[in-house]
Amino acid sequence: MVLCRCGVEASFSISWTDKNPGRKFRGCTNYKDPSRYCKFFMWLDPPLPSEDYKNLMYQMHFALVGMADGNAQLEQVNVDQNRRLMLMMKLMFIMVMLFAVMLVTGTVLLVKL
Question: Where is the GRF-type domain (predicted)?
Fold first, then answer.
């Protein structure tokens, strides 16, 4: 466990900036509160070897984020289509039941004639 200068466990995160894509680090959990922030920061892995590698990591990360967004959109389309399908099946069931009632009612009326 790594403690920051505040005496609190330093939070773990991964950087996705263009300068340090994919690098793991620990930092003060109070970074959003300037009055309590102790400015503790520590990289957990070595610097990336080259600019090309950094660019590749950055591009791959955002490609994955884009794919995840696309998957979320497709999931929503799937949910919407399933909802419509269920509604259509319910309507079809009601139509079949109404047709059956009309058929039985018409048969009963014909028998009485």
Answer: 4-47
